[in-house]
Amino acid sequence: MVSPETMAPPYQRVKHFLKAGLAAGRWPPGALMPSEAELTAEFSVSRMTVNRAIRELQAEGLVQRSQGVGTFAAPLHKVSSTLTIRDLHDEIESRGHVHHAVVHLQRAEAASAALAAQLGVEPGARVFHTLIVHHENGVPLQCEDRFVNPATAPRYGDQDFTRITPTHYLFGATALWRAQYSIEAARATGQEARLLGIAPDEPCLIVVRRTFTREAPITIGRLVHPGTRYGLQGEFEP
Amino acid sequence: MVSPETMAPPYQRVKHFLKAGLAAGRWPPGALMPSEAELTAEFSVSRMTVNRAIRELQAEGLVQRSQGVGTFAAPLHKVSSTLTIRDLHDEIESRGHVHHAVVHLQRAEAASAALAAQLGVEPGARVFHTLIVHHENGVPLQCEDRFVNPATAPRYGDQDFTRITPTHYLFGATALWRAQYSIEAARATGQEARLLGIAPDEPCLIVVRRTFTREAPITIGRLVHPGTRYGLQGEFEP
DNA sequence: GAGTGGTCTAGACCACACG
DNA sequence: GTGTGGTCTAGACCACTCA
Questions:
Q1: CATH number, span B4-81
Q2: Strand positions, DSSP E, A43-149
Q3: pLDDT tens, residue by residue, B28-39
Q4: Is residue A80 over pLDDT 70?
Q5: Which of A60, B166, B231, B237 is the most exposed place for a label (fewest CB within 10 A)?
Q6: Do B181 and A233 touch (CB under 8 A)?
């Protein structure tokens, strides 16, 4: 019987050795780490193997390298972090809860000038408009007001959005290339407050998401969440 | 005179060729891409060189590989995206605006039971507490209510936070290992509303951030932003 | 000049998938 | 069996940094 460490490919053993040392504080941030030659001798592997291990650590941001100088433990100087936004359906299901959607509006409309500019269509052109409220275990959690460019998703008007979310449908039906988000706190509109069953002055978390193919805008969606029922969470490790 | 492409290392030329083809739609998502052997012949380089190019594309999430099958253009099936949170000082400066901070409170206090648990100290132990309002061009933008574990940052109480933000100071003075965020929409407290100069019922974007060293919690901060003045933005490209 | 990383080669053996 | 990726080797040349 052999241990997993003995089984692993050599480059992974080298990588694991270095990673464990960094996690244990053996090389504090900025410290000089072993050279490729030292590791080559230590592990009895070729230099290419050691090089791959270190290069991957570099790609992961754990070490910094300078030609002619050496390899150093990375200072954890990131002052910015990232926050993940998930599809609401997945999020609810992953909590083991029941998601269901009520479609309040699903039709084609003539686009206003401002909307047409954002969707990349002619003013007055027909675009799809849906207004859907998503519930978690029967409680309204999100009011989704969405416009879709029919050039990128011509069948959008025919879908049954009680069975698949617009987000999921559009991910499958279009060639997503880019997405933009903005997040703010504000009041819901009167209609949104009614649909969500909240007071008109209750703070809401509002996400506006726009997505694009390589050529054209796909959709712009306004996602309104009651502040007392929904928040975003993120975690970050170097 | 030679073009940059001719100068670049072979693995980068291969990588660039594949990346450009993906961006141009030559291999749509899911399509089979050239094998290592084909690229080896095409570029007259060794297989290791081609392998490195493709492996890096895989690490970047642009292609998927299966042993015995082949390399495929990655389907852009990510349904989640990321949003970056920046330090407020950097963010204001990068807009070319002036940041200044007003320190309303800076002292050591006895920790309540709930706070002590979050900071990993004994109930009643002294912890640092600061209450700082950050302004952009003179307009209050963020009310920062922060508690700090003195075990991880013993000099926190002596800093001049009109000159450096707590975030910046703690990044430099501690060995950050992990950070957690939550974002929600809610009303400010009465005190916060007064300090920010807003109505008590105005929706606010509230970020709660907790950071940790490998061993212990460093700080927990509550960052309150008027919803009309501040939002978060993010972008995502595959 | 000695030590470092950056890169490349030509071949090799293996595990895996598919017809 | 054939083709694919996964990995390793032993050596090589280069550019860079520092004493």
A1: 1.10.10.10
A2: 63-66, 70-73, 81-85, 99-110, 126-136, 139-148
A3: 888 899 999 999
A4: no
A5: B237
A6: yes
Task: State how beta strands A139-148 and A126-136 pair.
Answer: antiparallel
Highest mean pLDDT among A21-25, A142-146, A174-178, B168-172: A142-146
**pLDDT tens-digit series, residues B34-92:** 999 999 999 999 999 999 999 999 988 889 898 989 999 887 655 566 677 778 898 89
Strand, coil or helix: B12: helix
Identify the residue whose tokens are 């648990």: B117
Nearest alpha-carbon partner for A146 in A218, A220, A207, A84: A220
Model confidence at A102, pLDDT cuts 50, 70, 90, reads very high
Could you tell me whether strands A139-148 and A217-226 are parallel, antiparallel, or unpaired per DSSP bridges? antiparallel
Output DSSP code: residue B214.
S
- The pLDDT score that the predictor gives to residue B90 is 87
Architecture in CATH for domain B88-226: 3-Layer(aba) Sandwich (3.40)
DSSP B144-213: EEEEE-TTT-TTGGG--TTTS-HHHHHHHHS---EEEEEEEEEEPPHHHHHHHT--TT-EEEEEEEEEE-
CA distance to partner chain A, nearest, from residue B228 (Å): 7
Which residues neighbour strand C (beta carbon < 7 Å)? A 33, 35-38, 47-48, 51, 54-55, 65-71; B 9-12, 44-49, 52, 66-69
Chain B residues with CB under 8 Å of A29 CB are: 175
Length of chain B: 238
Instruction: Map out the domains of chain A as residue ranges.
Output: 4-81, 88-226
Distance (Å) from the C-alpha of residue A171 to the closest C-alpha of chain B?
7
Give me the residues of A, 185-214, that contact B with CB < 8 A. Answer: 185-187, 201, 203-206, 214
- Residue A163, Cα to own-chain centre: how many angstroms? 23
Angle in degrees, CA B24, B27, B31, rounded to 5: 160
Mean pLDDT, chain A, as a whole number? 89
The pLDDT assigned to B62 comes to 86
